[in-house]
Amino acid sequence: MMTKDTFDYVVEQFADLQILRYRVPGFEELSLKQKELIYYLSQAALEGRDILFDQNGKYNLQIRHLLEAAYLHFEGDRTTEEFKALEVYLKRVWFASGIHHHYSCDKFVPGFSESYLKGILDGLDEALLPLREGESREAMYATLFPVMFDPSVMPKRVNQADGEDLLQTSAANYYEGVTQEEAEAFYAGMKDAEDTEPVMYGMNSRLVKKDGKLEEEVWKVGGMYSEPIVKIIGWLEKAMEVAENEAQRKVIALLIGFYRSGDLKEFDAYSIAWLKDVDSRVDFVNGFIETYGDPLGMKASWESIVNFKDLEATRRTEIISSEAQWFEDHSPVDARFKKECVKGVSAKVITAAILAGDLYPASAIGINLPNSNWIRSVHGSKSVTIGNLTEAYSQAARGNGFRQEFVYSDVEHELMDRYSDITDDLHTDLHECLGHGSGKLLPGVDPDALKAYGATVEEARADLFGLYYLPDAKMVALGLVPDAEAYKAEYYGYMMNGLMTQLVRIEPGCNVEEAHMRNRQLIARWALEHSKADKAVEIVKVDGKSFVRINDYVRLHALFGELLAEIQRIKSEGDFEAARQLVEQYGVQVDPLLHAEVLDRYRKLNLAPYKGFINPVYTAVTDEAGKITDVTVSYTEGYAEQMLRYGRDYDNLPVGVSC
Predict the structure, then answer these.
(1) pLDDT at residue 455 in the model
(2) What is the rounded distance in angstroms from the CA atom of residue 517 to the CA atom of residue 507?
(3) Which of 656 and 446 is assigned the larger pLDDT?
């Protein structure tokens, strides 16, 4: 058995990606029933893989099958630069669940020629090609090659450029033949301002125009994505049989009901039951959850995570959640925007057992759900920090030279070495456990009022909540940090990232597009701009290199409080114009000279700015009667090996399902 010291976290690196493994400590100690439950839920998670590929772009599934056919069946020279480039391109498509970058949303540029790929495909038997019914080989080329090779065709999966039609300029497959104005009017017409329990309109459907009329193609049994949903339900039904308790069994039953009906009221009922199930050791998310992939922030991508509670580490989050009302009461925001009674805040540290959909291979390290504003207000929310993933990130980063290159001085080095593991986790806890659940909308404010800026504002709100409270004496009093100096490690790391080092994820000449990156730059740039007079924060030059220097941590704390108050006001009042101005002024534009410098310095470290995971492999051990007697876990599967196996075993959507 691998120990923590001998476990090989880093598997491989290509393009701008590093592939890691994560351990599942404690799995062997679970009961047989819990292991069996995790096994069934993991199978349900993997069955939905093709849904995300199709959501991310209408040609993604066919392109993936095309590339896999070329990769598996080409019998020529596999050592040439073009074949190696094809292999890297395929690995990137696997990672991003499509032909656009998982974070920047820019379309990948193939490192091989159109003629090279055509030559490989021409040599394959037609039965190996992903042809649609009645489609010829040449017709397939004519459709897919421009999508892959022409930079002007579907260049962005999600476009957030101010002033453009975000639907017409985005390749994401949530709308067809619909303008932004039409979509916004369509869903505005569904809403009732007097409804105190509104569903998340449009969350589980594709909006299309047919014969000049708008209609929704709902994702459910008998509707769009029926094939994988039926398979998901099959595994969920098995999971119900070994559920830990009646509350968990009810959660699974409600989710199955929603998958069958597509009724968003049923989804709300499932969400409420899920967040109230706080006693089960094993937990999971499976469904249409986050809306970052929709330029309008309404339609939800498919994702799943199966996990179990880390009992020891959860004590930290339980302390935080138990003090939720204190944090709400002492927030620097206007009293009109505070919750008088914080309800149902639960938090835990979990061990991820499987990642899928929009949480695979790249994953969040913390989750706060459900996303419905009225449910959060009335019933509360459930927050998790994913402990074994943060451990994997930390272990993989040790000694890679990054801090040595970008941290200003030995003082900051010592702070980060001493405290960062603690404060990084604590900031994630505060962000997820309390930040997302804090504050309230004023009566009558549309939850979608901030439109395309909503995701950035919400992430900034949660980040600022955590940043504001990290230095508070309450953190020391609760035993969450060892002393009053610890917060400085997180402040320095956050400002360095927001002002400089996250730029390694941006291509030269491009702006910041992804909501979390916009959030971090917004906060850091705003603080830098508003500390010009007193230089609480500044960017300085040392031997020709730029560094972030924090001269006054107390002042920076006050600035975070000021910005939190304004961000909460914008959210609570639904002030779209203020959100637009704040994000566009501070969160979008990139300093080209600083960007070029950061890229050059980072390139010399030979590091990858993005990381993702290979899943462990679970095997059900059965007796002669077919009854499960154990479930084992292994960590030996390679990246390409796993992706190809998933492609074979969970191929649940016909090619061109939405075309």
Answers:
(1) 94
(2) 14
(3) 446
Residue located via tokens 């397939």: 140
**302-309 vs 545-550, strand pairing mode:** unpaired
- For residue 209, the cross-strand partners are 214
Sign of the dihedral through C-alpha 123, 124, 129, 133:
positive
* Mean of pLDDT values over 260-288: 97
Structure-token pair, residue 652? 């649940």
Give one DSSP letter per residue of 191-242, joined into a string: --TT-SS---TTTTEEEEEETTEEEEEEBSTTSBTHHHHHHHHHHHHHHHHT
Tokens found for residue 115: 């003629």
Q: Looking at this protein, which amino acid is placed at residue 599?
A: L
Give me the helices (H) in 358-486, please: 373-378, 387-397, 402-406, 410-429, 454-469, 473-477
For residue 462, count CB atoms less than 10 angstroms from its CB and return exposed for 0-12, middle for 13-18, buried for 19 or more: buried
What is the Cα 168 distance to its own chain's centre? 24
- Count H helices and E strands in the chain, helices first: 24, 15
Return the half-sphere exposure (C-beta side, CA atoms, 13 A cut-off) of residue 276. 16
Q: What angle do CA 54, 59, 60 make, to 5 degrees?
A: 55
Asked if 383 contacts 432 with a C-beta cutoff of 8 angstroms, the reply is yes
Residue 57 identity (one-letter amino acid): G
What's the pTM value of the predicted model, to 2 decimals?
0.88
Q: Are strands 10-14 and 205-210 parallel, antiparallel or unpaired?
A: unpaired
Token pair of 322 as six digits? 């138990």
What is the rounded CA–CA span in Å between residue 351 and residue 353? 6
Contact 420, 455 (CB under 8 A): no
Q: Pick from 383, 375, 384, 377: which is nearest to 272 by CA?
A: 375
- At 111 the three-state DSSP class reads coil
341-350, 374-383, 597-606, range with greatest mean pLDDT: 597-606
Which distant-in-sequence residues (6+ apart) come within 8 Å of 626 by Cβ? none
Distance CA 323, CA 508 (A): 45
Residue holding tokens 């249409």? 288
Token look-up 């559920």 returns 243
Using the 8-state DSSP alphabet, how is residue 135 labeled? -
Residue 455 Cα distances to 430, 449, 515, 580, angstroms: 18, 11, 6, 12
Contact 454, 297 (CB under 8 A): yes
In the block, tokens 């985005």 appear at 170
Q: What are the contacts of 597-603 at 24+ separation with CB within 8 A?
A: 597/545, 597/546, 598/500, 598/501, 598/503, 598/504, 598/546, 599/503, 599/504, 599/508, 601/405, 601/406, 601/545, 602/405, 602/501, 602/504
Distance of CA 615 to the CA centre of its chain: 16
Q: Could you tell me if 248 and 277 are in contact, meaning their C-beta atoms sit under 8 angstroms apart? A: yes
**The pairing of beta strand 175-176 with beta strand 345-357:** unpaired
| The pLDDT of residue 193 | 87
Q: At what angle do helices 639-649 and 60-73 cross, to 10 degrees?
A: 120
- Contacts for 628 with CB less than 8 Å, ≥ 6 apart: 32, 36, 39, 620, 621, 622
The closest of 56, 110, 55 to 88, measured between CA atoms, is 110
- Give the mean pLDDT of the chain: 96
- Report the pLDDT value the prediction gives residue 6, as an integer from 0 to 100: 58
User: Is the dihedral angle over the CA atoms 626, 631, 635, 638 positive or is it negative?
Assistant: positive
CA 209 to chain centre: 29
